[in-house]
Structure formats: C-alpha cells, structure tokens
Write a structure and sequence with these properties.
This protein has 519 residues and is α/β, with parallel strands linked by helices. It has four domains: 87-248, Glutamyl-tRNA Synthetase, Domain 3 (Glutamyl-tRNA Synthetase, domain 3); 256-364, Orthogonal Bundle (Glutamyl-tRNA Synthetase, domain 2), CATH 1.10.1160.10; 368-409, no CATH class; 420-517, Arc Repressor Mutant, subunit A (Orthogonal Bundle). It has helices at residues 17-32, 53-64, 87-100, 110-122, 141-154, 202-212, 228-238, 303-306, 310-318, 333-339, 354-367, 370-383, 390-400, 407-412, 426-432, 435-448, 456-470, 478-486, 494-501, 503-517, and strands at 4-7, 36-39, 70-71, 103-106, 160-163, 170-175, 179-184, 192-194, 217-221, 244-248, 251-252, 256-257, 263-265, 288-291, 297-300, 350-351. The chain has a three-stranded parallel sheet with strand order 1-2-3. Strand 9, helix 7 and strand 10 (244-248) form a beta-alpha-beta unit. Helix 9 packs across helix 11, helix 16 (435-448) crosses helix 17 and helix 18 (478-486) crosses helix 20 (503-517). The longest helix is centred in the N-terminal third of the chain and has 16 residues, at 17-32. The protein is elongated, with a radius of gyration of 32 Å. The structure holds one RNA strand of 75 nucleotides.
Length: 519
RNA sequence: GGUCCAUUCGUCUAGGGGUUAGGACGCAUCCCUUUCACGGAUGAAACACGGGUUCGAUUCCCGUAUGGACUACCA
C-alpha cells in the first residue's frame, strides 16, 4: 500500500516554525517510504480565517523545499483540498453517524451548558463535561424524542451534532512514537462534530478527509494526543480502518535572553505565534505581516529575510526532536530522508535555541562558494545604489566569509570600503591615537607613493620598513591605522582592506584622519 | 480541578543493568594573531527525588516532584 501523509494547517496566520517542523517530518517520512505528501487546508473556523495565510503557507513550504505531491495549490484526485469547500461531504458523513446512532442533535445554548457546568461544579463533580452521564439532563435528540427534535429543527432552532461516546469502552491505539495508548471512554466527552453554522469541527473533518484521501500515517503535534482516542472511536463508528498515528513532541519556547545570552526570564510552555513579537528571533519562515493580540499591525521578520539558509534551517529543525543515533550533526536533505525514522523521534518536548540555528547557518554559509556569496553582495549593494565589481565583491567575501553568520553581514560590516566612516570610535581614539602613531602614519602614507605596485603584500612591506626605521613595534600604529581606514577599533585584516581600498583611497583616508584627529 | 504525556550537562542530544556517562551549541581559560572574529587546545557542566527488583541501577517497576499538552460550536 502506498504511504500517504498529510500536512493540514489552518490558515489562521503565519505558519510558525513548529508547523514547519511538523511538515518537515511528514515530508521526510513520505520521501523515505516512497510515499506521497498532501497539503490540506483546514479552514472550518471562519472566525479565525486570516486572508493571505493560505498563500503564505504554500510559499513557505516552497521556500524550505518541502514539495507537495497532492493537495491545495497542486490539485489531485481528492479535490477540493480546502475543507470549507467540502461542506456537503461532512454533512453526509455526519448524517451517517446520526443514522447509525453514533451521534445526536443537541439544542443546548451556551448558557444552558454553562449552567450545567456550574451545577456540577457546585455538587463537587470532578468531570463537568457534556458526556454520557450529563447528556441525559440536556436538551438533545436523545432526551427530547424524535417528534420534539423534528419540531425544533423545523422551527429553525440552532443545533449541533455531537458524538455519542459510549459509557464503557477501552480505546487503544498504537502511536509510532509513544507506543500503546489506552484510554477509557468515560474520560471523553461528547464532542461537537458539526457546528451550528453547518461546518464540521476539526474532529469530524479530519477523520473524514484522512479516510477519503487515503492517508496512511497521521503525523502531527502532541497537542492532538488527548483527542486521538476520539478520532480512533470515530473511525470505528464509520467502520473504517484508522491510520497509524505519530504524535510529535512540542517545541517549547526558550527563556528570554539579553544580548549577551544571559537569562532575563525563564519561560514555560509551547512555542506559539504570539511569541513572535516578543522573542528576538524569527518564528515564521517568511516575513509575516499580521496583527498581535491587541489588534495592532506587526511585522515579524522571517527566517528567509533574516538571512537563514534553507538547508541550515532544515538541518537545525530536523535535529530538534530527532537524531539518527550517532554524533552526526550535518545532514543534507537527502541524508535526512535516508536516515529519518519516526521511531527515533523523541517523546519529550525540546526548547528552541536560536543560537544553534545560527551556528548551523554559519556552517552552511562557509560551505557556499565565493562566487555565489559575491553575487549576493553585488546585488545587495546594487539595491542601495552602490556599484561594486564582481572582482571587488569576491575580495570582500574572502575577507568576511569566516567572520559572519548571515550573508548580509558581509556587506553590512564592510560599508567602510565604499565610503569613509564619518566618525571614529571614541574610546579607540582616546587610547590609541597619539602623536607618535600619527607621525608614523604620515610617514607610511608618504612612503606608499613610492611603490610601483600597490597590493596587500607591498603595503605590509612598506609599513614594516617605516616601522623599522623608527624602531617601533607594529602594535603602535595598527590601531591608529585601522581607525583612519575604517573608523572602528576592530575588524578584518587591514592589509587586505588597503588592497581593496587601493592606494589613493588609503592615502586619502590617512590624510583625512590626520586632519580630523590631529597629529 | 480532571485526563493524558514527558523527565541525561544552561540548551539540543548519545547511551543503556557493571561506562572515567559520549558529542554538539553556548560559556570560560590558554594558544594563534595588528584588533575583533575564525581556527586549535583545555576546562566547568547532567542521569529530578524516594522506594523497590537485582550481586549491581542512571538504565527495569512503583510512587513523589517538576514540566508540558488537553479540558471550546479553535485547530
């Protein structure tokens, strides 16, 4: 039988990084088994629908390299793949459950249900849910009888369809990650299957679609574990074979850190979209423009825009909750597909640590060719209307490659190569700029004129000659020279910087500094 | 409160009845060096606790604690 998995997000906003990992594990499993990956949009809650979210999800998956074989955006034999367009299908199956006596109509208002809970709570009941016990005291087709039920429905009274959970039944299923799960039906409640707006809840839609779309493996987040018994029961009600389940551990939110990496505040709970505006790391794959809890417009910078490479992000994410049993840290997507297995997915949740993601990014950046990185530099500068030849860009890349984590840092940290810094690092000026250094710089500047060939090697030689003549160690002038050339107290190799700057600009900047900072 | 799930360095994790409990990120120190990075070396750092079972438990079992998820006409 063909392996078929699905990723089924609801379009309620940006796809957060935990969702990306869920999609990734589905993808890796499908690829490994030679199966298919489906994308289904679970938009049965019209209140939470966010325009643009679906497109965002599709684009995000595309960016991280997760190919969808069938489903929303690509089509397929089980279309439509958007649940809001499958309304009639769910109604039909709900009716089937109703007819078989596995579901019933309920007319209770919100207030009536609340009153029941209050009553139960006051009586000291541990369980206040709408279930096999309490439904006997509520307004539903079971207590009202067929005639009254028909009368109410004919009168247009709002109703929901609830699952009729048996009082006594042991529900068991095997989770691929957590092994056997046994739950007694008396701990379940009569979940709403069809809402009063005629749309199904997740539980019904999910089971019906997974069955119809021939899903063999349901790989989803741990938050679904408590409702899995209900799902198993529904499959049984329908007389369908349930798919295999694999409930993934949650990604937990990290503690709040300051710039230095010290813990400001210990945080608990699963990582959620709401953390986006508070944590100082991306939570969405692509930049997302949305609103926060206070309905204010916010922009959350995505991993793509922050300069993360997809292979780095995938590598990092794959290892958050899974490993192959070895010390291996770097995996290509192909290698991940080869070695992935649900059995080796962890049971416990893992705290998200952006520092490791950065480390992966740095590693992948270094693996890029100079040519590729240089092209990025040229393009980025072009957007700022700064001209830069490929040759110069490659020199810059060689200068910066080992020093940065993100590609954009290459040009951001070398802007001094395109325009002399307006300011000089104040503390460095105070401690490193003095008459002696200034004098030596002046000599050096003059000496450069005599060179026939100006390059890093020649500049270095010239500097040494000047220093030897004065009987001074190199440490005396270097900080001052750096100040003059870059305005900063530290940075990449100065000889290479002079090489890129060229003789004229090097001399100009020394002269400029001499004028501004004094001799 | 109830139901369910989990628990190895700060974090991600390997391991598994007998190990100096391994690796990685991060951190610290030293080396390299014109600075800052990079790189190299070294170091600090963990089996939540209590009972069993056993010759022996971090590993198996049971409790406790802690953390987490769920407990909606949200997914």
């Amino acid at each position: 039988m063909e392996i078929r998995v699905r990723f089924a997000p609801s379009p309620t906003g940006g796809l957060h990084i935990g969702g990306v990992r869920t999609a990734l594990y589905n993808y890796l499993f499908a690829k490994k088994m030679g199966g298919k990956m489906l994308l289904r949009i679970e938009d049965t809650d019209q209140k939470r629908f966010v325009p643009g979210a679906e497109e965002y999800i599709i684009e995000s998956l595309k960016w991280v390299g997760i190919q969808i074989d069938e489903g929303q955006g690509v089509g397929g034999p089980h279309a439509p793949y958007r649940q809001s367009e499958r309304r009639e299908i769910y109604q039909q199956y709900a009716q089937q459950l109703l007819d078989a006596g596995h579901a019933y109509y309920a007319f209770d208002t919100e207030d009536e249900i609340e009153a029941m809970r209050q009553r139960l709570q006051a009586a000291g009941a541990a369980n206040t849910s709408y279930n096999a016990l309490t439904r006997t005291q509520m307004r539903n087709s079971l207590t009202l009888g067929a005639d009254e039920t028909k009368r109410l429905m004919d009168a247009g009274t709002p109703y929901v369809v609830r699952a009729k959970i048996p009082l006594k039944e042991e529900i068991r299923f095997k989770d691929l990650i957590r092994d056997w799960q046994v739950v007694h039906a008396n701990t379940l409640d009569d979940k709403v299957l069809m809402k009063s707006d005629g749309l199904p809840t997740y539980h019904l839609a999910n089971i019906v679609d997974d069955h119809l779309m021939q899903i063999t493996h349901v790989i989803r987040g741990e938050e679904w574990l408590p409702s899995a018994p209900l799902h198993v029961l529904l499959y049984k009600f329908f007389g369908w074979q349930a798919p295999q389940f694999a409930h993934l551990p949650l990604i937990l939110k990290p503690d709040l850190l300051d710039e230095k990496g010290n813990v400001i505040e210990v945080r608990h709970g699963k990582l959620s979209k709401r953390d986006a505006d508070e944590m100082n790391f991306p939570i969405f794959p692509l930049t997302w423009n949305g609103t926060n809890d206070n309905d204010e417009d916010i922009t959350s910078v995505g991993y793509r825009e922050a300069g993360y490479y997809t292979d780095a992000l995938i590598n990092f994410l794959a290892l958050l909750g899974w490993n192959d049993g070895s010390d291996k840290e770097f995996f290509t997507v192909d290698e991940l597909v080869q070695s992935f297995s649900l059995e080796r997915v962890h049971k416990a949740g893992s705290k998200f640590d952006i520092r490791k993601a950065k480390w992966f990014n740095q590693h992948y950046l270094r693996a890029k060719s100079d040519t590729e990185l240089a092209a990025g530099v040229v393009e980025a500068l072009k957007r700022q209307n700064i001209a830069c030849t490929t040759e110069k860009a490659e020199k810059i890349v060689r200068l910066m490659k080992e020093r940065v984590t993100f590609p954009q840092e290459i040009h951001e940290q070398t802007m001094f190569l395109f325009a002399a810094s307006e300011t000089y690092d104040a503390t460095a000026v105070q401690t490193k700029w003095n008459a002696e250094a200034a004098g030596l710089l002046s000599n050096f500047k003059d000496e450069l004129t005599t060179l026939t060939d100006f390059n890093a090697e020649a500049a270095k030689h010239t500097l040494h000659v000047v220093l030897e003549k004065a009987g001074v160690k190199i440490g005396k002038v270097m900080p001052a020279l750096r100040l003059a050339l870059t305005g900063a107290a530290n940075g990449p190799d100065l000889m290479q910087i002079m090489d890129i700057l060229g003789r004229d600009e090097t001399q100009n900047r020394i002269a400029l500094a001499l004028g501004k900072l004094g001799r």
